[in-house]
Amino acid sequence: MLKCPNCQNKDLGKIGVNQYYCWNCFIELSVSKGTIFTHQVEEDGTLSSLDDLFTEEDRSVNL
């Protein structure tokens, strides 16, 4: 099961194809080729990458 690399919560909402939203820490996640990409939604609606905050192991999908 997919879980948030930031808070480890499994309460994720699906917002698109391979795109999820963490209801606990309010970040967007997208999955591509077994890797989770994390983004913060800014006030103007743009996305800022948070990937540099996590190790490659933290960002790998463990299904």
Polypeptide structure, described:
The protein has about 60 residues and is mainly β. The radius of gyration is 11 Å and the shape is globular. It has no helices and 5 strands. It has a 5-stranded antiparallel beta sheet, with no helix packed on it.
Low-confidence runs: none
Shape: globular
- Work out the strand percent: 35-45%
- Radius of gyration over all CA atoms, rounded: 11 Å
Alpha-beta classification: mainly beta
Reading the helices and strands in chain order gives EEEEE
The number of helical segments is 0
Strand count: 5
Please summarize the sheet with the most strands: 5 strands, antiparallel
The whole-number mean of residue pLDDT values reads: 92
Helix % is under 10%
Strand order of the largest sheet: 1-2-3-4-5
End-to-end Cα distance: 5 Å
Q: Helices, strands, pairings?
A:
Blueprint: E1 12-16, E2 19-22, E3 27-32, E4 35-41, E5 47-49
Antiparallel strand pairs: 1-2, 2-3, 3-4, 4-5
Keywords:
single chain, 63 residues, mainly beta, 5-stranded antiparallel β-sheet, globular
Question: Could you give a quick summary of the protein structure above?
Answer:
By secondary structure, the protein is mainly β. The chain is built from no helices and five strands. Strand 1 (12-16) and strand 2 (19-22) form a beta hairpin.
